[in-house]
Amino acid sequence: MIKHESIFLSVPKSGLLDELDGVAMSEDWNYWAIAIQDKTGYYLWAKGVSIKVTPSELVEIIKSPILATDSAALRIHERIDTMRTLERIRLKSSRKSS
What we know:
Elements: E1 3-9, H1 22-25, E2 31-38, E3 41-46, E4 49-53, H2 55-63, H3 72-97
Antiparallel strand pairs: 1-2, 2-3, 3-4
């Protein structure tokens, strides 16, 4: 059986200047992800990539999806961005070799 849950990852909102803050308004830092549990493990899918996560990471992200310093959400965000970069490099490399 596959279980899933949508999570909105976002930067902390600071108040009056949010609309002027490029990071606070950026889709790079505020986005939906899907937490997935299946018989092979736990995953988070976001921004077109999937990463494997531990059960405790998933619990932390679901409880607190804010991209704050030293948060599980921020560590996962960085892994998602790394995976996206690696995927772009892989695609670029495969196009050159074709």
